[in-house]
Amino acid sequence: MSIPTPPPSAESGKRSRRKEARPGELLDAALDLFVEKGFAATRVEEVAARAGVSKGTLFLYFPSKLELFKAVVRHNIAGRFDEWKLEMQAFEGSSSELLHYCFFVWWERIGSTKASGITKLILSEAGNFPEVASFYRKEVIDAGQELIRQILRRGMDSGEFRKVDLDYAIYIVLAPMIFLMTWRHSIGMCVPDELELTPEEYIRLQVDNMLHGLCACQKPSSPPPTF
Fold this sequence. Notes:
Number of strands: 0
DNA-binding region: 43-62
Helix content: 55-70%
GO molecular function: DNA-binding transcription factor activity; transcription cis-regulatory region binding
Domain HTH tetR-type: 20-80
Mean pLDDT: 87
Pfam family, one: TetR_N
Protein name: DNA-binding transcriptional regulator, AcrR family
CATH topology of the largest domain: Tetracycline Repressor, domain 2
């Protein structure tokens, strides 16, 4: 995504180069604090301090905490949907393989990263911040659901998946993702090592379970592809 830039100034070359680096540093600092403290408890002064700039500098790029949050979500999650759509369209394997692939790509790029903590924030605070909830629904939830819908429709159109109600089937795919993100940023942070969940194995089992319910014809099970 494009990061906003302030009006040009007459600063020296060194000073200007430093200012150009600041939006990315502010987004990184904001992501850290939003995930650590939540939306309500994060103050813009803290974000600026962690990025090593003044609050005034932060407001040159992001006029409010809400706009800063939107930029964080777009930079880390929403801005990547076009890239994922292109990958999905270019995928040449079966729809079952595509479903496996998308789960593991999602885990690698979002689920296993700090950005997955945004989902826990939304689940915890959306009711208190309607503007945040509305933005996240439009730019992340709606876009993600449409991508899943296209994967399932691909399998149904080819005859690989049986016909199902897509409006509800998308939640079968979303549920394991939401569980992993909330687990990682809540109880999963404090469970003993012997009880630690292995995300990759959980994903393999969940996708295998989905496909047994989606496939039009039951065939002898084979090991799922490894990505």
